[in-house]
Write the structure tokens for this entry.
Amino acid sequence: MKPASPPAPWRSGFTLIEVLVALAVVAIALGAGVKAAGSLTLNAERLQRMTTAQWCVENELTEIRLQRRFPGVGDSRFNCEQLGRVFEGELAARATPNPNCRRVDASVGDAQTPRLLTLTTIVCNR
């Protein structure tokens, strides 16, 4: 009778399937991270465009108020440059029920988006 052979030692390491599953999990996580980073970059760019467009519109409306000019009814155009970006804007002055006041809509856009932002204010004759 033969003596019983000792059990085979456990092999250390990973199987090919375990390695492939781990690689798939890492690839999915990295893909999600890259997509999130791209989204954050696009949102930061959009925020910068909107902020500079708002500065242009607010500057134009402030200029109307500071000059104390009463705008006539009609449309006019203006150009503005902020942080190296060129914006084209439009002012639309409309009559209100009060003949001493005008509603002024100021819109601004750039080469990518014709109308980024519109602000409205009321200007009264003093």
Summary: The chain has one domain: 16-124. Residues 16-124 form a domain with the Pantoate--beta-alanine Ligase; Chain: A,domain 2 fold (CATH 3.30.1300.30). Residues 106 and 119 are 5 Å apart (CA to CA). The beta strands are 74-82, 85-95, 101-109, 117-124.
